[in-house]
Amino acid sequence: MPFVGLGLHILLALFCAVHVVRHGQQLYWLIILFSFPLLGSLVYLFVIILPHSRIERGAVRAVRAAGRAMDPGRELREARTAFDDTPTAQNQMRLAAALLAAGDAAEAARQYQSCLRGPFAKDLEIRLGAAHACLLSGQPAQALEHLASIRAEKPDFRAEPVALLTARALAGLDRDVEARAEFEAASERFGSVEVWAEYAIWALGRGDSATAQPLLARIDKVSARWNQLAKQLNEPVMRRLRAARKG
Prior knowledge:
CATH architecture of the largest domain: Alpha Horseshoe
Number of strands: 0
Largest sheet: none
Shape: globular
Number of helices: 15
Structural class: mainly alpha
CATH topology of the largest domain: Serine Threonine Protein Phosphatase 5, Tetratricopeptide repeat
Number of domains: 2
CATH superfamily of the largest domain: Tetratricopeptide repeat domain
CATH class of the largest domain: Mainly Alpha
């Protein structure tokens, strides 16, 4: 039995080591992983892998959704107060994210652009937020510039949202052949309801029922099994999809 445990420790360390190499993490992690196979692997999982995983992002989304349901304007009020009191780059990033979540995409885009002129100019999370805000405020060309720079610097960074925003930005520029290719690639790679919904929204807007109908059938099948929390988390994109189906 001790040998089995030792083997699992080594396998976990190897898994983390492969992640280090594939995702361009600092190579000192390899020393940590193989000097302390179990402890090093656990630290790597919690510090590097989980903060960028779907599980962690889903948990964050659930907490945010619950907070918005109880007090929809609280985060924006607190973010604005924090930035007014202490106008640091961190507080400005928080304000930009709160504005975007509250639906003020134009002001969010201005705040994100300001952040990108400061010490966090190369921060990929800020650039992704800026791309989202630009897209929602009717600036698809600027959104595409941000997304292209993210992919150029780190191709695997937040791959699913980057792919979806890229497809939507291309659609906003009427580059439909490229948009379709981006949607198709995202559908094959990620196969999530959000991807299918965005692809279906685009297809319905183009009058392409041949593409939309299979996607809608998949969405209906999966969403029929959702619990209340899943419905709440997916409500923004599903609301847009319902509007597209009616239109």
